[in-house]
Design brief:
CATH topology of the largest domain: Rossmann fold
CATH class of the largest domain: Alpha Beta
Strand order of the largest sheet: 9-8-12-13-14-15
Number of strands: 15
CATH architecture of the largest domain: 3-Layer(aba) Sandwich
Order of helices and strands: EHEEEHEHEEHEHEEEEHEHEEH
Largest sheet: 6 strands, parallel
Strand content: 25-35%
Number of helices: 8
Helix content: 25-40%
């Protein structure tokens, strides 16, 4: 049996559509778990085949409590039934913006504590896609191989496909500017950053922006769009600074609350990846897939080309 033949590809419920795309890239079929819900609300999970001695690849998002717990159950169940290895890909990590607590606040840094829960189920390997902070990579005791998969190459391909004549990349804050600079380096285009201050959990103020956007198409880039407040403020600053048009781009399209309507009302189209469950191209979104990128990462890690 070859290494590829020994792999079983699994997913938690929300990540199944993306896992199927990854499977097509790898030449693997997604194995569906046997699931049902009992009258008291508890969930039943069973592997549909023998996983003992097999290399399991689990694709799972953790955008809510149920999805997070399902991933925990899948990893723990894989260990219970003696899988040879358990390899996890997390396209979107929930609570990833809560990677630290303010001193004396009593806050629970759930980005760290929940990632520790995943690590404590003892997977062999965990890959994350475009993390908000790399602090979560170190929330284990050194026994687990972790990987941060960056999507700059896929994002660059998407921007090139737009065939824009003169554009500049814009970071909505200085904290994300290094990421935007890397993407600008790939594309060979200029970049700049806005000045953003956060004054509450979901509230920010975006200040001035340089004149680098004047006469150009501004592409505002971030790792995620949650409520869209800071993005829309940055859109305003770009137009005030002389941009001729503004596009918005982010990896994780959370779009919480009325974010979608806020962008639709402004007529601003959003470019993003399919890391967050349920996001497909429509009248607002232009979605590209990270499946080829994740498949290449798994090919390299599992040495499937051999």
């Amino acid at each position: 049996m070859t290494r590829r033949d020994n792999i079983i590809l699994l997913a938690n419920g929300p990540a199944a559509p993306l896992a199927e795309k990854i499977g097509r890239e790898l030449g693997l079929e997604l194995t569906r778990m046997v699931t049902r819900r009992f009258a008291d609300g508890e969930f039943y999970h069973a592997f549909p085949c023998d996983v003992s001695g097999r290399d399991l690849v689990i694709v799972a998002t953790t955008e809510n409590d149920g999805a997070h717990q399902e991933l925990i159950d899948l990893i723990a169940g894989s260990r219970y039934w003696n899988a040879l290895s358990v390899n996890v890909v997390i396209p979107y990590l929930g609570y990833s913006t809560m990677e630290r607590a303010k001193p004396e606040s009593g806050e629970i840094p759930k980005g760290i504590t929940r990632t520790r829960q995943i690590f404590r189920t003892r997977p062999n390997y965990v890959a994350f896609v475009d993390l908000h902070s790399e602090a979560v990579l170190h929330a284990h005791s050194g026994e687990i191989r972790t990987r941060h998969v960056w999507t700059e190459s896929a994002a660059a391909d998407k921007i090139r496909s737009l065939a824009l004549a003169d554009y500049v990349l814009v970071s909505p804050d200085y904290g994300f500017s290094k990421r935007v600079a890397r993407l600008a380096g790939i594309l060979g285009c200029p970049h700049t950053a806005a000045n953003k201050d956060r004054y509450d959990v979901d509230r920010t103020i975006v200040g001035q922006l340089s004149s680098a956007v004047r006469g150009r198409v501004a592409i505002i880039c971030d790792d995620m769009i949650r409520t869209g407040g800071s993005m829309l403020q940055t859109v305003d600053r770009c137009y005030e600074a002389g941009a001729v048009d503004v596009l918005v781009m982010a990896t994780h399209l959370v779009l919480a609350g009325d974010a979608r309507n806020r962008f639709l009302e402004r007529g601003i189209r959003i470019i993003g990846a399919d890391t967050y469950p349920g996001r497909e191209s429509d009248d607002l979104l232009d979605v590209y897939s990270v499946a080829p990128l994740i498949a290449r990462e798994l090919e390299h890690y599992l040495r499937l080309a051999e």
